[in-house]
Amino acid sequence: MARKRMIDPKFWTDDKCIELTSEGKLLFIGMWNFADDSGLLPNKSKQLKAQIFPASSITHEQINELIVKLSDLGLILFGNKGQLIKIKGWKNYQKINRPTPSHYEFEPDDPDDSLNTHEQLTPNIIEYNRIEKNGIEKNIKVKDQIDELFEQFYKHYPRKVQKERAYKAFKKLNNTDKELAISTLEDHVKYWSKSERSKEHIPHPASWINSKSWQDELPSDHEIPKKTKFDVSKFKYDTSYNNLIGYCSKCGKSSFYSPYKISSEDSRCCKVEILPERTQELVDKMQPKYKEVLNKVYNNE
Questions:
Q1: Range of the domain at 45
Q2: Does one domain contain both 197 and 246?
């Protein structure tokens, strides 16, 4: 009785199967259909021709030659004095629910073959599975290493927010940048401490990683002002958490400033003191200008 069987996609590129002719491959696959659920079938070339090549000009003598070729390649075994054929590695490649017990008692003609009846289809598939398994194990090891490095980084980063986002950013870094992020973090933490930076004004860890802030040149100790002319903690960060928003104390214009340099800088426009927010005096001073701009917009000028 013919049965439905599965064909492993790796079959077509297998080293041994490549050595088979088209008829040899077709014969081998056809044997799976007519083997019982234990991978056994009678060694009868005429019967195989009728079952697998019913309208083909191939002769049963040619089928006998193909069967010998399958045996030489180690894909099948002969048993019971040449009366039976057993397909090697059968249970590895045919998953059968509720298999029907075989009517045959298989006794290999070559005693050495009795030790090899459970081998995989071919050695290169063994190698493929080994490589695949090793690849999975390697990926697990790499992930463990990344997790360990990230935890080392996150443990020393002073602002503990959005850890998952920080992990995703850290994971994208190459190995060199991962090491640099960890090794230079201590200098940044020291700088934040000496410049009296409050936690809410330290960049989010993900932002610090994405901007590759370890590449920034930090001010030397003598460049860090002992007392700033304003409280840095009063300044707000932009949406990227990479720059502070400051306002010119003369004209009220806003601009972005480096959190590392803002304490010693002047405004970019008028070269005067930078404020964390506009004073009421500046707001009143700027209102006429805003009204003039709004009037032009409304009047389509």
A1: 9-120
A2: no
